[in-house]
Design brief:
6 helices; Rossmann fold; about 160 residues; 5 strands
Protein backbone atom coordinates (compact mmCIF):
# COMPACT_ATOMS: atom_id res chain seq x y z
CA UNK A 1 0.00 0.00 0.00
CA UNK A 2 1.38 3.39 -1.00
CA UNK A 3 0.76 5.89 1.79
CA UNK A 4 1.71 9.56 1.72
CA UNK A 5 1.58 12.43 4.20
CA UNK A 6 0.60 15.96 3.21
CA UNK A 7 1.65 18.11 6.18
CA UNK A 8 0.72 21.69 6.95
CA UNK A 9 -0.79 24.06 9.46
CA UNK A 10 -3.97 24.61 7.39
CA UNK A 11 -4.90 27.75 9.35
CA UNK A 12 -7.28 27.95 7.56
CA UNK A 13 -7.49 25.35 4.81
CA UNK A 14 -7.81 27.02 1.39
CA UNK A 15 -8.91 25.91 -2.04
CA UNK A 16 -5.18 25.70 -2.88
CA UNK A 17 -4.69 23.12 -0.12
CA UNK A 18 -7.76 21.22 -1.29
CA UNK A 19 -6.41 21.22 -4.84
CA UNK A 20 -3.23 19.49 -3.63
CA UNK A 21 -5.19 17.09 -1.39
CA UNK A 22 -7.57 16.05 -4.17
CA UNK A 23 -4.85 15.57 -6.76
CA UNK A 24 -2.42 13.73 -4.48
CA UNK A 25 -5.20 11.44 -3.18
CA UNK A 26 -5.47 10.13 -6.76
CA UNK A 27 -1.78 9.16 -6.75
CA UNK A 28 -1.70 7.06 -3.58
CA UNK A 29 -3.70 4.37 -1.84
CA UNK A 30 -3.97 6.45 1.32
CA UNK A 31 -3.25 10.12 1.96
CA UNK A 32 -2.78 11.37 5.50
CA UNK A 33 -3.27 15.09 5.93
CA UNK A 34 -1.01 15.89 8.87
CA UNK A 35 -2.17 18.96 10.78
CA UNK A 36 0.84 20.52 12.46
CA UNK A 37 0.71 21.63 16.08
CA UNK A 38 3.20 24.49 16.01
CA UNK A 39 3.71 26.06 19.43
CA UNK A 40 5.86 28.81 17.89
CA UNK A 41 2.79 30.27 16.15
CA UNK A 42 -0.50 31.49 17.55
CA UNK A 43 -3.02 30.09 15.07
CA UNK A 44 -6.50 31.44 14.43
CA UNK A 45 -7.95 27.95 14.86
CA UNK A 46 -6.93 25.34 17.41
CA UNK A 47 -5.54 22.08 16.07
CA UNK A 48 -8.83 20.37 16.97
CA UNK A 49 -10.79 22.96 15.00
CA UNK A 50 -8.48 22.64 12.00
CA UNK A 51 -8.82 18.84 12.05
CA UNK A 52 -12.63 19.06 12.18
CA UNK A 53 -12.76 21.60 9.34
CA UNK A 54 -10.46 19.47 7.20
CA UNK A 55 -12.39 16.28 7.95
CA UNK A 56 -15.56 18.01 6.78
CA UNK A 57 -13.95 19.33 3.59
CA UNK A 58 -12.43 15.96 2.58
CA UNK A 59 -15.32 13.70 3.59
CA UNK A 60 -15.92 12.89 -0.10
CA UNK A 61 -12.38 11.49 -0.45
CA UNK A 62 -12.50 7.97 1.06
CA UNK A 63 -8.73 7.42 1.03
CA UNK A 64 -7.91 10.60 2.98
CA UNK A 65 -7.41 10.74 6.75
CA UNK A 66 -6.78 13.86 8.82
CA UNK A 67 -4.44 13.42 11.79
CA UNK A 68 -2.80 16.07 14.01
CA UNK A 69 0.90 15.86 14.82
CA UNK A 70 3.71 17.74 16.49
CA UNK A 71 7.43 17.41 16.34
CA UNK A 72 9.54 16.28 13.43
CA UNK A 73 7.74 15.42 10.22
CA UNK A 74 10.00 12.40 9.65
CA UNK A 75 8.90 10.97 13.01
CA UNK A 76 5.23 11.43 12.10
CA UNK A 77 5.78 9.85 8.66
CA UNK A 78 7.51 6.89 10.31
CA UNK A 79 4.67 6.51 12.82
CA UNK A 80 2.11 6.60 9.97
CA UNK A 81 4.19 4.04 8.03
CA UNK A 82 4.13 6.32 4.99
CA UNK A 83 6.61 6.18 2.14
CA UNK A 84 6.46 9.76 0.95
CA UNK A 85 5.63 13.36 1.72
CA UNK A 86 3.56 15.54 -0.59
CA UNK A 87 4.29 19.26 -0.77
CA UNK A 88 2.54 21.93 -2.78
CA UNK A 89 4.42 24.62 -4.66
CA UNK A 90 3.01 28.01 -5.62
CA UNK A 91 6.15 29.81 -6.76
CA UNK A 92 9.94 29.61 -7.04
CA UNK A 93 10.30 30.93 -3.49
CA UNK A 94 8.28 27.95 -2.23
CA UNK A 95 10.56 25.59 -4.13
CA UNK A 96 13.74 26.88 -2.51
CA UNK A 97 12.36 26.36 0.99
CA UNK A 98 10.66 23.04 0.19
CA UNK A 99 13.77 21.64 -1.50
CA UNK A 100 15.83 22.42 1.59
CA UNK A 101 13.23 20.74 3.82
CA UNK A 102 12.99 17.69 1.52
CA UNK A 103 16.77 17.28 1.53
CA UNK A 104 16.90 17.59 5.32
CA UNK A 105 14.10 15.03 5.73
CA UNK A 106 15.85 12.69 3.29
CA UNK A 107 19.05 13.01 5.31
CA UNK A 108 17.17 12.17 8.52
CA UNK A 109 15.19 9.35 6.86
CA UNK A 110 16.97 8.08 3.69
CA UNK A 111 13.99 6.00 2.51
CA UNK A 112 11.63 8.97 2.64
CA UNK A 113 10.76 10.57 -0.68
CA UNK A 114 9.14 13.97 -1.20
CA UNK A 115 7.00 14.74 -4.22
CA UNK A 116 6.10 18.25 -5.25
CA UNK A 117 2.82 19.21 -6.88
CA UNK A 118 2.39 22.64 -8.34
CA UNK A 119 -0.80 24.31 -7.31
CA UNK A 120 -3.35 25.02 -10.00
CA UNK A 121 -2.78 28.43 -11.60
CA UNK A 122 -6.00 29.75 -10.13
CA UNK A 123 -4.54 29.23 -6.63
CA UNK A 124 -0.89 30.13 -7.21
CA UNK A 125 -1.19 33.39 -5.26
CA UNK A 126 -3.27 32.00 -2.40
CA UNK A 127 -2.10 31.51 1.19
CA UNK A 128 -3.78 31.12 4.56
CA UNK A 129 -2.16 34.39 5.65
CA UNK A 130 -3.75 36.23 2.73
CA UNK A 131 -7.16 34.75 3.59
CA UNK A 132 -6.87 35.89 7.21
CA UNK A 133 -5.80 39.38 6.18
CA UNK A 134 -8.64 39.80 3.67
CA UNK A 135 -11.13 38.50 6.26
CA UNK A 136 -9.80 40.82 8.96
CA UNK A 137 -10.62 43.80 6.75
CA UNK A 138 -14.09 42.51 5.96
CA UNK A 139 -13.28 41.29 2.46
CA UNK A 140 -15.09 38.47 0.67
CA UNK A 141 -13.11 35.24 1.08
CA UNK A 142 -15.64 32.95 -0.57
CA UNK A 143 -13.42 32.50 -3.63
CA UNK A 144 -10.52 31.35 -1.43
CA UNK A 145 -11.97 28.91 1.12
CA UNK A 146 -14.84 26.43 1.61
CA UNK A 147 -18.08 27.64 3.23
CA UNK A 148 -17.26 25.89 6.52
CA UNK A 149 -14.13 28.04 6.85
CA UNK A 150 -16.14 31.22 6.26
CA UNK A 151 -18.63 30.13 8.95
CA UNK A 152 -15.92 29.30 11.49
CA UNK A 153 -13.98 32.50 10.77
CA UNK A 154 -17.16 34.54 11.22
CA UNK A 155 -17.75 32.84 14.57
CA UNK A 156 -14.20 33.71 15.65
CA UNK A 157 -14.58 37.32 14.57
CA UNK A 158 -17.98 37.65 16.26
CA UNK A 159 -16.41 36.47 19.53
CA UNK A 160 -13.55 38.95 19.16
CA UNK A 161 -15.87 41.76 18.06
CA UNK A 162 -14.02 42.25 14.81
CA UNK A 163 -15.48 43.18 11.42
CA UNK A 164 -17.95 40.96 9.60
CA UNK A 165 -17.08 38.76 6.64
Amino acid sequence: MLRAVYPGSFDPVTFGHLDIITRSAKLVDELIVGVLVNNAKSPLFSVEERVKILEKTVENLPNVKVIPFEGLLVEFVRKMEAQMVVRGLRAITDFEYELQMAQTNHKLEPDLETIFLTTGLEYSYLSSSTVKEVAAFGGDISQFVPDIVIERMQEKMDKKGECKL
